[in-house]
Specification:
Layout lengths: L7 H8 L5 E3 L2 E3 L4 E6 L4 E7 L3 H18 L4 H17 L1 H12 L3 H25 L3 E3 L5 E9 L2 E5 L5 H14 L3 E5 L6 H13 L6 E3 L4 H9 L6 E5 L2 H14 L3 E4 L4 E5 L5 H13 L9 E7 H16 L19 H16 L3 E4 L18 E4 L5 H4 L6 E7 L2 H9 L3 E2 L1 E5 L3 H10 L4 E4 L14 E2 L2 E2 L6 H6 L1 E9 L1
Parallel strand pairs: 7-8, 7-10, 8-9, 10-11, 12-13, 12-18, 13-16, 15-16, 18-19
Antiparallel strand pairs: 1-2, 3-4, 5-6, 6-22, 11-21, 14-15, 17-20
Helix pairs in contact: 2-8, 3-5, 3-7, 4-5, 5-6, 10-11
The structure holds nicotinamide-adenine-dinucleotide (NAD).
The site of nicotinamide-adenine-dinucleotide (NAD) has 31 residues, from helix 8 and helix 9.
Length: 492
């Protein structure tokens, strides 16, 4: 920690340990705390207080009370507060990017280039939708004089994963708040820092107490208490398919609608007429972004036989040129894996892929650079093998791509669609008309052309099958999903 050159404001924030959680406008600490570890060193950077079931229970009670006025607040007031929050995020971009870098391990430039500004944009985007929305719609029916009123649900609960804490939180809570719901957030206990900082900014922005509550805690204790609270009116979960299934079951029992944004195993279809250099660059960037810990990344690459050798040779060079390093160093293009546990899992997957016949084209080892030996580093990895290899099918969640060959475009679409995940796929071809046809045929929430990991507010980002259900994020439909419809009718 002492060797770090951090913004003094970042240091001041970390020093107040254990960092308290934020409930009903108060900063609270319960009896338990844990270390927050920098994945580049495996040293503690601070401690956080861990919320307990009673804390979650209290937070839901406060959020219920706060909803009575927040749900009735004029949209223009909600807009102003969300815009204020967005401007404070932009003001403190450097601090937030540093927190994201030492917590998740990502290059700071990635956080300043994407995570933080894109999160700020989310609050602005949904703030605008709050005032543009039609909350009362006349139906013009024959028998009844009737209209639909759209109302917020009440307390919305959010459970987030460790890979994009700040951005995913914004994608989740911005539409919920804009629509008039109050929120109780459980960030991952591995990466809670930027969400706690967000609570600080929300307090500064002037959100009424109880509207935004942030309580890190363990999944099985604090998380379980939150998801099983029958007073929550909406559940939004982002994380693994296994935990999502459990949360869906619990919410089903309570009849609480659940939005589940889950894992993926994205396919990239690289046609014989693809621009090989652009595809190599785009896909190398996609699988090394956030050290491959990206749900929607392309982790199985189907390459046409005609260009396979050229593509793989160029991809090998590109992978071997990626500069690994601590996120805070300017040269780092890829940081460490977020946790030691996840690093061990990635090595295990690679070993098992080999045991099932895959070969390593490059990577799959710890870097030789001694200065990186304390961190959770792995070199970007290309595996080659067959469709039935378990790691051509299952999510690894690291910088590992699985190479597969194809000859026929229709046949490869069928092969790609056999996978039960349905998050994001891409098609690479210089024939745009053909690429669009193939993109339509791929089953998933998102089909991108000549790019991978494409986000823009207004462009719906969702999923199907094992990758999730219940909505998606980033569009007008997301905002509408946080409003319930109520019919009001008088017989003429
Ligand atoms: P995870 O499912 O292990 O944990 C996610 C969150 O759930 C954490 O906050 C954890 O504490 C909590 N949790 C665990 N058990 C719980 C329980 N019983 N009750 C309530 N909460 C519980 O996922 P992870 O390892 O943190 O994140 C990686 C996964 O997230 C990957 O599968 C990735 O694909 C997925 N993900 C999906 C998206 C998307 O938009 N579809 C985005 C990011 C990550």
């Amino acid at each position: 920690m002492t060797q770090l050159t951090l913004n003094p404001n970042t240091l001041a924030f970390l020093e107040n340990k254990p960092l308290a959680f934020f409930s009903n406008g108060e900063w609270l600490r319960s009896g338990q705390s844990i270390d927050v570890v920098d994945p580049a060193t495996n040293q503690a950077v601070t401690q956080i207080a861990m919320a307990q079931p009673q804390d979650m229970n209290d937070a839901v009670s406060h959020a219920e009370v706060a909803f009575k006025s927040w749900g009735a607040t004029a949209p223009a007031k909600r807009q102003a507060l969300l815009q204020k929050l967005a401007s404070l995020i932009r003001r403190d971009e450097d601090i937030l990017a540093e927190l994201e870098s030492i917590d998740v391990g990502k290059p700071k430039a990635e956080a300043t280039g994407f995570d933080v500004p894109f999160a700020a944009d989310s609050y602005d985007y949904f703030a605008t939708l709050a005032v543009e929305a039609q909350y009362e719609v006349e139906l013009g029916l024959k028998v009844t004089d009737s209209h639909t009123v759209k109302k917020p649900y009440g307390v919305a609960a959010f459970v987030f994963p460790w890979n994009f804490p700040f951005t995913l939180c914004a994608w989740g809570i911005a539409p919920a708040l804009a629509a008039g719901n109050t929120v109780v957030i459980k960030p991952a206990s591995e990466t809670p820092l930027s969400t706690l900082y967000l609570a600080k900014l929300a307090e500064e922005a002037g959100f009424p107490k109880g509207v935004i509550n942030v309580l890190p805690g363990s999944g099985s204790v604090a998380g379980e208490a939150l998801i099983s609270d029958s007073r929550i009116k909406l559940m939004s979960f982002t994380g693994s398919t296994a935990v999502g299934r459990h949360i869906g079951e619990v919410c089903g029992r309570n009849l609480v609608p659940a939005k589940l944004e889950l894992g993926g195993k994205g396919a990239a279809i690289i046609c014989s007429d693809a621009d090989v250099d652009a595809a190599v660059e785009g896909l190398t960037g996609a699988i090394t972004l956030n050290a491959g810990q990206v749900c929607c990344t392309a982790s199985r690459w189907y390459i046409h036989d005609d260009i396979y050798d050229e593509f793989v040779a160029k991809a090998k060079v590109a992978f071997e040129s990626i500069v690994l390093g601590r996120g805070l160093t300017e040269s780092a293009q890829m940081g460490p894996i977020c946790t030691e546990k996840q690093l061990a899992k990635i090595f295990e997957c690679i070993g098992d892929a080999q045991a099932h016949g895959a070969t390593i084209v490059t990577g799959g080892v710890r870097p030789s650079d001694e200065s990186l030996s304390d961190g959770n580093y792995i070199t970007p990895t290309l595996l080659a093998g067959a469709d039935d290899n378990p790691w051509a099918i299952e999510e690894i969640f690291g910088p590992v791509s699985f190479l597969l060959k194809f000859n026929d475009e229709q046949e490869v679409i069928e092969r790609a669609n056999r996978n039960l995940y349905g998050l994001a796929n891409s098609v690479w071809s210089q024939d745009l008309a053909k690429a669009k046809v193939l993109a339509h045929q791929l089953v998933g929430g998102n089909s991108w052309i000549n790019a991978h990991n494409v986000f823009e507010y207004g462009l719906h980002y969702g999923a199907c099958n094992k990758s999730g259900c219940g909505g998606g994020v980033n569009s007008k439909a997301t905002f509408e999903g946080y409003l319930r419809h109520q019919s009001v009718a008088a017989v003429r």
